[in-house]
């Protein structure tokens, strides 16, 4: 056998025909890697492994077959469409993919990417039309089901979207994004307890690591909205315990800093997130120290952030900024004018104007003062009566 070379297609590398079964592909691969092991022929071993992985995946194999039959035209066109999508030029991508579909009318991947483009353009009905046809032909295709879930979510049909992500989790319980999307759906249904439970179910599958931060990040915000301070604090403790070395710590810090960068400084979580970055960093990385210093300068002293002491007139809501304005201390305009006119007759017009203004801007304080004076007067009168009765 000739040594494996880069100018051969994957079937030629494994010395099998293009119609080979999965069992034949597997058998050919194991025969080849015995001859071209990673220790003695690392380059050939990598090519053989790539060939095996490509031909073992149904969609990848279809792409490979298209390239062989069309001298690489399929990959070239598909690459152009992907570049257009990466530049958010979804209309051009759709046109390129539709042109490809004329040559490959049964290609599922092309149709899925067209649907994905329509989703990005928020043309949910057109995406739904394409995906329902694909689902009918293969009701277990994960990519199709995921896109269907996203489509119904975009249509705000959360119950239908929920059904799709429940199916996806049953089919592939290791995919984190399915749990995140299902949790988000329950959140939109205002089922906050269930939204948290879905994420906890995923985290219970193993030891929490930095890669689990997206789940804990979502739980961080849900517990804030739920206003469950005890649960919220436990999430912070779990986030702090994620990194096991400096590399993981920096990875976590970057993700937290990205979150801070995506929200404004009047967001209810801003102050706590900045302090969380500071606590995790613990002055280890100078660049993070500088970021913290800058971020702390943007914390507003006139706002009540989540976790700050709450005044008596504070009321929690489900908005990002959950403080209530202080009660207006001003009085009624009409009563202020009336009081000013009366005072003008008793004293002078100038004093009447001053009294009217004082009442308008300080009505609450004056009412409290008058209330105290009234109580004092009542007490004096009662004491006076008691003294006179004993005489």
Write structural notes for this entry:
The chain has helices spanning 10-14, 22-35, 42-56, 58-69, 73-86, 90-103, 108-120, 124-137, 142-154, 158-171, 176-188, 192-203, 213-226, 229-240, 246-262, 270-281, 286-296, 333-346, 349-390. 26% of the residues are buried. Helix content is 70%, strand content 0%. The N and C termini lie far apart (131 Å). Helix 7 (108-120) runs parallel beside helix 9 (142-154) and helix 12 packs antiparallel against helix 13 (213-226). Among the domains are: 187-235, no CATH class; 243-325; 333-390. The protein has 391 residues and is mostly helical.
Number of helices: 19
Low-confidence parts:
317-329
What's the story with the biggest beta sheet? none
User: What are the secondary-structure elements, in order, as H or E?
Assistant: HHHHHHHHHHHHHHHHHHH
- Portion in strands: under 5%
The overall pLDDT, averaged over residues, is 84
* Inertia-based shape: elongated
Number of strands: 0
Describe the structure using short key phrases.
single chain; mainly alpha; elongated
